[in-house]
Amino acid sequence: MPWKETRVMDQKIRMIGDWLTGEYSVSELSRTYGVSRRTLYKWIGRYETDPDAGLKEQSRVPLTMPRATAPELVAEILACKSSHEHWGPRKLLAWLESHQPGRKWPAASTVSEILKRHGMMRSRRKRHHVAPYSEPFLKSNQPNEVWCADYKGQFRLGEGGLCYPLTVTDSFSRYLLGCWGLEHPSYLPTRSYFERAFREYGLPAAIRTDNGVPFASVGIGGLSSLAVWFIKLGIWPERIEKGHPEQNGRHERLHRTLKAEAISPPRKTISEQQRAFDRFTASYNSERPHEALGQKTPASIYRTSFRKYPARLPAVEYPRSFSERQVKQNGDFKWRGKEIYLSCALAGEVIGLRQLDTATWKIYFSFYPLGLLDDITLKITPIKSVTYVSG
Asked: Which of 53, 87, 193, 346 sits most deeply, having the most CB atoms within 10 A of its CB?
């Protein structure tokens, strides 16, 4: 009779009962119950040792687990996860090691198993990433070579108004220079928050943004009033290709973390939301380890810029070989007795034109090239790809 036809415990009891009668040998019982002689001897031995509980299934878990994580370490890991619910095992482990360096912490894989066992970790959905863009943006090999800025998608506050989060980061260190909730992404409020960042951290070499308002326009060179101001400060305005947010991937990744930790759910008022942004900024910079930084925090890597924010904007100057023209309020400048439209963003500014050949002039605003002017047709051809040139 095979074991699977009836309950296992019933089979054991009947088997031991038949053995106790003395009428059956072990070999006969083995054939009758369809089990091996070794199994029969095992259960007979257990019955003789403990008639009351010997036939019950025993746990296969070792009595001692010398490599098991100590309960106090497990408690510390779970407490850290409770305080930082969006952090993964590696970040938690890096934080614990930096704050309690004298203790021997388990591997990240063990931390992951501990979190799963306590229902504090979900499997991550696999993401399919677009290949990175390969345009020659300025490389960030040290702090303040490139800052990244963007408006994260607006969302509605509890009281009904909209909030537009403006974020600015240092590309090299991932340091979050600012996260501010604005009621609208217009030029003057945006500029005021950049001024705040410039006064506190100094000036970067370049600022990388998308092509949206207020960072860019449809005019020549894509210049907006904000970009013109950047150039006058000696900052190179970089713009990613339209429809390719992955070109500013580090900043986009920040936005996912920001949404999870400071926006979901939205706060009731803009002031309450700003307090949430401020708490997030402090934690992101000084507590949250970053894998790309060797599990260091952004605050441990970032240093302020040696280029200080000037009290007055410096005047735009050109070499003597350039021809200078002032842009009128309607965006036109005068050339060969004709009015040529350039950009309203440059109204009141002085541009420079450098002759390339007998019929072509290259138009600049300060160091930034805008387009090529045909001296015969008086048509301007925009420069599609602008590469940063240091100095």
From this structure: 346
The torsion defined by the Cα of 43, 46, 48 and 53, in degrees rounded to 10, comes to -110
Q: Which residues, 6+ apart, have CB-to-CB distance to 377 below 8 Å?
A: none
d(CA 126, CA 104): 32
CATH 1.10.10 fits domain 3-49: yes
For 187-205, write each residue's pLDDT tens digit. Answer: 999 999 999 999 999 999 9
* Phi, psi of 248, rounded to the nearest 5 degrees: -120, 45
Q: Please report the pLDDT score of residue 247 as a whole number.
A: 60
What value does the mean pLDDT take over residues 194-217? Answer: 92
Whether omega for the bond prior to residue 310 falls within 30 degrees of 0, making it cis, is no
> For the chain, how many helices (H) and strands (E)?
11, 13
Closest by CA position to 174, among listed 301, 8, 312, 11: 301
pLDDT at 72: 76
Alpha-carbon distances of 139 from 64, 142, 221, 238, 334, rounded to whole Å: 54, 9, 21, 12, 38
- Structure tokens belonging to residue 202: 């100094």
Q: How many whole angstroms from its chain centre is CA 367?
A: 32
For 228-285, the pLDDT digits (tens) are: 999 999 999 998 866 555 566 677 788 888 998 899 899 999 999 999 999 999 999 9
Spatial distance between the Cα atoms of 257 and 144, rounded to a whole number of angstroms: 22
Whether 130 has a pLDDT exceeding 60, the answer reads no
Nearest-angstrom CA–CA distance, 137 and 93: 34
| Rounded Cα distance, 333 and 348, in Å | 10
Q: What gap in Å lies between CA 168 and CA 200, rounded to an integer?
A: 13
Q: Report the alpha-carbon distance of residue 371 to residue 301 in Å, rounded.
A: 39
Asked if 47 and 39 count as a contact pair (C-beta separation under 8 A), the reply is no
CA distance 122 to 143: 35
DSSP letter assigned to residue 276? H
- Could you tell me the CA-to-CA distances from 197 to 120, 168, 176, 193, 381 in Å, in that order? 37, 9, 10, 6, 35
In 3-state terms, what secondary structure has residue 326? strand
**Packing angle, helices 71-83 and 108-117, rounded to 10:** 80
